[in-house]
């Protein structure tokens, strides 16, 4: 029991107790520090709860680190900490995690202010880190704790807000908003299908900026107006965000010139940001009765897209009628890109879309869609909207917070490469609540298969993924189970059967499945060049996207796990650097994999949704790929220094403890 309860306790007394605890920790050898840690953590928590507590801990940041508070944890290396993980840490139900995370932020602040000359972290890097953390957790700056937070975290919920206000006061709100706007644009340049979180952020910023009690700074947020007006006040008719009904009445009073102005304004904003205003959806619904020319203008169509609109007018009008609503406005972007892709000219796609429009959903599918998205519009409309988004943005598919990268990759690949097959899979999942695929001639039913990698039904996915991924996950896992007992990696057999005939049957892997050690590296890298690098494969562009596996590493180049990606193409970037362009289903492809290997998503020749790395850096994280065994290329012509350079990246990252004397031995049979 706290002996000080009911007594006036000053910050000074709490700080004195903290200083004593830190001194004891510092005087203890490393192997015994854990015995002193509890006292320090409790003293930190009590100081943080006091007015002025964050500043007191900030002043002691160097002493806390040097005493060993962070020893043996990821916090011990602040230069590799990830801003997006701070929020979950501070919201943890574990009080110790909250205290250490909060203390780490105050250490960052001491470094940023120049009070702590950290040996591995610069003041500029610390300031940028804190700006990103604040930007990603705006609600902790501007809103009080919710009832749920108060119940779950008690007084800690307010402690976190006091901490954030202290950090923001020191860092400055202008830099917070600038950092947030930069982050939003970085995400939007990847053109994800799911933009709910981005839209929510933009909405909150718009509210805060209009609040006289919130001083965001007059010069902050360059590019912010473009984001806000993409959702609210995009054109003159909705400038003051009047509501959909008022906007509709204004459209009805407009002449053709005014309607064209509205149409081009919305189209420009949509293609500029990848975001769609609810007012844009209402305009599209209105223009069905006015003019196909204006409809094409409002969608911002290319010549190909406009021809598709005119050729398949009835279908496009019906798709808009069923799927495009203010609540599903985002699918308008998918519709525009679908038309521009020209996939309606593929004979099976048009009848498959008509089938989708008439599809009767299974009760389980209806319930799943309604539970996640609500009942307005109807689940049938929500699913058609999801189909439009996926067919228009095949590289915008994300796996959410689920271990289902293979299923997300398959959906993306089918939308990109075989859209009528995707529509067939969707029909089976939505109408029959069952998907049947074949593995080496034998059927596998998702109803009969055991659970896959996802232990709970996903809820943070787009409508198509929400219905289809649980079926694919079970089938994929069952295919793996049917490979038990076979030598080597099961992806050799599973990938071609699961993804499609275009997955090459040749297979290369540089990890021994039984031991985890690296094998046949020279042969592996030479054949990767010979299959994918234009200088060694006869200049042949990749025809079909190919599944591959990478070893993901963190910003310290430490191994994190295996991950499924799709190789899309290899080509020189605008700086004439040969790069591999690939699809990563993990929601945000822009990642720092350590040792200078930073995945790019814009500025190096990427198309929307692509990630890229220089060829040798990509190869250094690759552990399996597929090849056409009949198209051999010129593996012997690959310079030894190129292989050596890739091996260097490997040795400095995930291969450090996997290399053996035999790792560069003779080739495996492909």
Explain what the structure shows.
The longest helix is centred in the last third of the chain and has 19 residues. Strand 4 and strand 5 form a beta hairpin. By secondary structure, the protein is an alpha+beta fold. The N terminus and C terminus are likely disordered. The chain has a six-stranded antiparallel beta sheet with strand order 3-8-4-5-6-7, with helices on both faces. It has a two-stranded antiparallel sheet with strand order 1-2. It has 30 helices and eight strands. 51% of the residues lie in helices and 7% in strands.
Radius of gyration: 28 Å
Biggest sheet character: 6 strands, antiparallel
| Secondary-structure-derived class | alpha+beta
Number of helices: 30
Instruction: State the end-to-end distance.
Output: 68 Å
Question: Which segments are poorly predicted (pLDDT under 50) over 5 or more consecutive residues?
Answer: 1-8, 666-670
How would you describe this structure in keywords?
670 residues, disordered N terminus, alpha+beta, 30 helices, six-stranded antiparallel sheet, globular, two-stranded antiparallel ribbon
């Amino acid at each position: 029991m706290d002996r000080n309860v009911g007594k006036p306790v000053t910050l000074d007394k709490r700080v004195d107790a903290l200083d004593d605890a830190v001194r004891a920790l510092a005087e203890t050898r490393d192997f015994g520090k854990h015995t002193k840690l509890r006292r320090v953590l409790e003293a930190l928590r009590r100081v943080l709860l006091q007015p002025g507590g964050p500043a007191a801990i900030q002043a002691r940041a160097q002493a806390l680190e040097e005493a060993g508070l962070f020893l043996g944890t990821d916090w011990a290396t602040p230069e590799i900490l990830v801003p997006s993980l701070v929020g979950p840490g501070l919201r943890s139900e574990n009080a110790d995690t909250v205290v250490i995370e909060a203390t780490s932020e105050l250490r960052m602040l001491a470094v940023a202010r120049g009070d702590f000359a950290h040996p591995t972290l610069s003041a500029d890097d610390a300031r940028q880190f804190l700006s990103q953390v604040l930007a990603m957790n705006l609600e902790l700056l501007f809103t009080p704790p919710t009832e749920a937070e108060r119940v779950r975290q008690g007084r800690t919920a307010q402690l976190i807000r006091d901490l954030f206000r202290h950090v923001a006061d020191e860092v400055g709100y202008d830099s917070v908003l600038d950092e947030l706007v930069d982050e939003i644009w970085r995400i939007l340049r990847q053109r994800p299908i799911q933009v709910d979180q981005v839209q929510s952020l933009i909405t909150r910023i718009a509210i805060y900026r209009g609040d006289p009690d919130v001083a965001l700074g007059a010069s902050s947020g360059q590019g912010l107006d473009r984001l806000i007006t993409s959702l609210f006040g995009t054109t003159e008719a909705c400038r003051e965000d009047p509501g959909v009904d008022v906007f509709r009445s204004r459209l009805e009073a407009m002449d053709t010139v005014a309607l064209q102005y509205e149409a081009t304004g919305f189209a420009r904003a949509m293609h500029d940001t990848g975001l769609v205003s609810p007012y844009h959806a209402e305009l599209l619904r209105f223009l069905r009765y006015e003019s196909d020319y204006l409809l094409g203008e409002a969608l911002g169509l290319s010549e190909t897209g406009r021809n598709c609109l005119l050729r398949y007018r009835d279908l496009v009008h019906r798709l808009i009628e069923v799927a495009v609503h203010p609540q599903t406005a985002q699918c308008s972007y998918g519709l525009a890109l679908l038309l521009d892709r020209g996939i309606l000219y593929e004979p099976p796609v048009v009848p498959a879309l008509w089938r989708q429009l008439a599809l009767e959903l299974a009760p389980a599918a209806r319930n799943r869609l309604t539970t996640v998205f609500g009942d307005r519009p109807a689940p049938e409309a929500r699913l058609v909207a999801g189909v439009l988004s996926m067919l228009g943005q095949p590289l915008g598919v994300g796996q959410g917070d689920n271990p289902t990268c293979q299923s997300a990759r398959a959906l993306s690949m089918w939308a990109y490469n075989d859209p009528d097959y995707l529509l067939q899979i969707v029909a089976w999942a939505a109408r029959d609540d069952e998907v049947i695929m074949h593995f080496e001639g034998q059927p596998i039913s998702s109803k009969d298969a055991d659970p896959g990698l996802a232990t709970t039904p996903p809820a943070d996915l787009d409508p198509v993924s929400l219905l289809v991924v649980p079926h694919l996950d079970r089938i994929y896992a069952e295919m793996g189970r049917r490979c038990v007992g076979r030598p080597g990696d099961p992806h050799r057999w599973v990938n071609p059967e699961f993804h499609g005939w275009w997955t090459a049957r040749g297979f290369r892997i540089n990890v021994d499945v039984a031991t985890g050690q690296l094998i046949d590296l020279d042969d592996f890298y030479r054949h990767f060049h010979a299959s994918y690098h234009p200088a060694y494969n006869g200049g042949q562009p990749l025809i079909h996207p190919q599944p591959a596996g990478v070893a993901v590493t963190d910003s310290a180049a430490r191994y994190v796990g295996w991950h499924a990606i799709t190789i899309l193409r290899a080509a020189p970037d605008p700086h004439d650097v040969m790069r591999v362009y690939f699809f990563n289903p993990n929601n945000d492809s822009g990642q720092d994999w350590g040792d200078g290997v930073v995945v790019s998503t814009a500025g190096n020749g990427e198309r929307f949704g692509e990630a890229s790395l220089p060829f040798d850096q990509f190869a250094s994280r690759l552990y399996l790929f597929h090849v056409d065994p009949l198209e051999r290329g010129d593996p012997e012509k690959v310079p030894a220094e190129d292989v050596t350079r890739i091996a260097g990246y490997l040795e400095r990252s995930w291969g450090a403890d996997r290399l053996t004397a035999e790792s560069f031995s003779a080739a495996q049979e492909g």
